[in-house]
Amino acid sequence: MHPRSLPPQKTSLWLTRAPDAKRFPALDKNLTTDVVVVGGGIAGVSAAYFLAARGTRVTLLEASHIGTGETGFTTAFLTSSMDTPFFALRERFGNNHIQRARRTGEEGIALVEEVQKKEHLPCGFQRLDAVALGLQPESTEHLTREMGALRLAGGEPTLLRAEEAQTLTGVAAVGAVRIPRQGAFDARTYLLGLGERIQKRGGQVFEETPMTGLDIGKTLVVNTPSATVTTDHVVLTTGLFPNPYRAQNKLFRQTVTYVIALALIEKTRKWRFPNVLAWDVTDPFHYMRFLDELLMIGGEDRPVQEAAKAGEEPWHSLEVFAPILEPNTSWDVTHAWQGQILETSDALPVVGAPPGGDSRVLLASGFGGNGMTLGSYTGKMVADLITGERAADANPFRFERPTLASKNTERQESEECERRPPC
Ligand SMILES: Cc1cc2nc3c(=O)[nH]c(=O)nc-3n(C[C@H](O)[C@H](O)[C@H](O)COP(=O)(O)OP(=O)(O)OC[C@H]3O[C@@H](n4cnc5c(N)ncnc54)[C@H](O)[C@@H]3O)c2cc1C
User: CA–CA separation, 92 vs 97, rounded Å?
Assistant: First the structure.
């Protein structure tokens, strides 16, 4: 197959639909507030929304524009399955860990569903089944193990034999695991709507206002190029953390992931692939979903150092994968984009004050490929922690958890785990 030409502009579908533009003012005078949230992605906007909804005076600062960080480059699956299979997480960390991961994922989906409904946000939310597809003979064992782990984690998956999987998807699969009632939405539209709702509840949203420094004294003072904000609490949701928290970034493995969007050339034809959230269980894996008549295919993940050398090859590899889903069909590549994900050693985010840090400054990041669910869940949890509705030790994502290793100690830990599983 000859690769089709890629669009010259490598931007996401979401940023084409709701172009990157300033929609909220920049900060131009000093302020005093209860909480400053820094970062206007899914985690920061959700946190600011849940705080404003409880009557807390909240100020959101975004360096660029709302929803144009990694959240603007997502594929926006809402799923409680993780990038790392549950059976692998169970072997390393035990049943409690996968139960917690699945439960928080499910709660994240429910939160987005509830909020978009309550706030009448036109973000295309829909409940969809997810399907993990086995495409190679050796995938059968993977599917059986994942099915068992998902049940232990509290899910209600169904194992589909080859014929059932093929009937459902039209793909020559060796089998599949179907996970009911997951979801999909347009995260950027959701966040833009939430920004307005924050303002309606008395919160303040500023774009083009980067935090350039943080003074930690009797009060907290957030510095920006134009003004300062004095506050009782700060929540940093900037992806990689800025100073004085840069040292915490060693907790993250940084991976680049790629996406293409395809449009059928014959407009009268319909895609054969069904409207589900799907991924294959090959390593590295591919993931697929629809947005209206466009099929998004993502994957070809690689460490950030290798991505710099990869050029356009990962997108062409995604195209080579496409005929597995839709044989004998012609399409155009309408969009091609890439983004970076930050993963921790145990596939859960970090949220809270790091060891030795000031308890008034909460950090939240490391959502891996599950930022839509875990970021939403985190937003509510941050509001609970700040308003005292949740005790700090009831935070499942706290820094002081035994399963969290920095990337420097991770190899050593995983070797130890292999000797005495599960740890
Ligand atoms: C291609 C791709 C596909 C993905 N698919 C999925 C998926 O299907 N489902 C899923 O759940 N997850 C998916 N993810 C992961 C998900 O997108 C991320 O986990 C999530 O968007 C991270 O959100 P965030 O709020 O932590 O960060 P971001 O969205 O990056 O937000 C951080 C914000 O902080 C701002 N900022 C940085 N520094 C400062 C500063 N000093 N002052 C003020 N603001 C600052 C940035 O401008 C940015 O807007 C995908 C990721 C990629 C790249």
Answer: 9
